[in-house]
Amino acid sequence: MPPRAPAPREPLLRAIQHAAHVLLRARRFVLQLLQVLRLSPKPSWRILPPRHRDFGVFLVVFDVQRRPVLLAEIKDDAWTTKSDLRFKADEQMRQRYDSMLAACRLPRLWGLSLLGTSLRVYCGDVATEEVDPAFEDRPCPGRTFPRNFLEGAWDIDILSQEGFAKMKEIVGDIVRKAGAL
Q1: Phi and psi dihedrals of 152, rounded to 5?
Q2: Where are the chain's structural domains?
């Protein structure tokens, strides 16, 4: 029996699976790096310029025409503990959408924001250029953030059954829409 030819969607599925594997490896690397920095004899964030303090891993999954189909950003779980950092993580994802949504050939551009293992899912509609969930601006521009601002927005644990189901749903949607084109 001749070997079966791969379905057109299999390369995209493999690319997404590879991206998920890279995300998990990158997260482990970032966590190990943070652990090393915290355990150094004289840990000090003050020696780093501000632009180097908010590092994370950003990943884009492209289709065969090099157009984005999935955005993902991973940051340390410490970002879940402070409202200003949660706001900054949300703002950074939206900036990624500003630069990439128009290039997506699918009806939706999915985005994953991981703060540790806490996941927030974004979905950009290419036709309307709207990103869900809706943007929440600072409640009072002249004041500090309320401590509970955007608390619970990263409400899915990526390692849970719910997280697995959500990832399966997103990958399924991408594969279906890419196969229809």
Answers
A1: 85, 0
A2: 10-133+146-180
Closest among 167, 181, 160 to 13, alpha carbons compared: 167
Angle 26-32-38 (CA atoms, 0-180°, nearest 5)? 135
Nearest to 115 by CA among 37, 39, 17, 27: 27
CA 170 to chain centre: 12
Query: 75 pairs with which residues across the strands?
Result: 115
pLDDT in tens, the chain (181 residues): 555 554 545 665 666 666 666 666 655 555 554 444 343 333 334 444 444 456 678 888 888 888 899 999 998 888 888 888 888 889 999 999 999 999 999 999 999 999 888 999 999 999 999 999 988 877 777 777 888 888 888 899 988 899 889 988 998 898 888 877 6
Q: What is the pTM of this model?
A: 0.70
